[in-house]
Amino acid sequence: MLGGSFNPIHLGHLLLADEVRERLELDQILFVPASVPPHKPPRDLAAPEHRYSMVRLAIAGHSRFAVSDLELRRPGPSYTVDTLAEIRREADSELFLLLGSETFLDLLSWKEPARLAQLARLVVIPRAGTPFDHEGREAKKILQEIGQEQWIPIRDWGSVPPPHSRGVLLVPVTSLPISASELRRRAREGRSLSYRVPAAVEAYILERGLYREET
Q1: Theoretical Cys-Cys bridge with 128: which of 17, 58, 175, 194, CB 3.0 to 4.6 Å?
Q2: What distance in Å separates the CA atoms of residue 206 and residue 212, rounded to the nearest whole number?
Q3: Residue 155 has pLDDT above 60, yes or no
């Protein structure tokens, strides 16, 4: 599962998802756009139905990518632990939750962080250009608080960890220097989004005038 606001989804999201899927030999990556992201202000946030539609357009044609509107159908803040619990009730396969390293360092502010690690295998992806010391005091404290014993680095393709090994997976992948905030600024200024988002997503943004007015 890869959750987020996807405001908008871009090629960096897609490349990350594809590399993690390939490296861990996952059956599927499920993109879950948040309706009301608890940790992000609503500033410049496109309507949930627009963000869902952009994800659907972005992943079209990829046989191992899927999108869920689960959080859009649920009222209130989009808490990941609630989403994982619902997915767990419907699926009997092992679940993996993909997290950026910056998000992991903020994990203790999330709702029921220890339960997240019980519902799904945590996969942390270091963000290029941002220092992340997985052996540092802060990262180790989070591991302890969520009941995980160790980091399990995944450096080679197909290095799938044992199903019942306890630990958080550390998976470095290619990181494109693309940020959603920069894309929104470019859209607001009427500048090109080409080679940053899929062509269908760029057309969707332009046709609906998304992000043209600063809020």
Answers
A1: 175
A2: 9
A3: yes
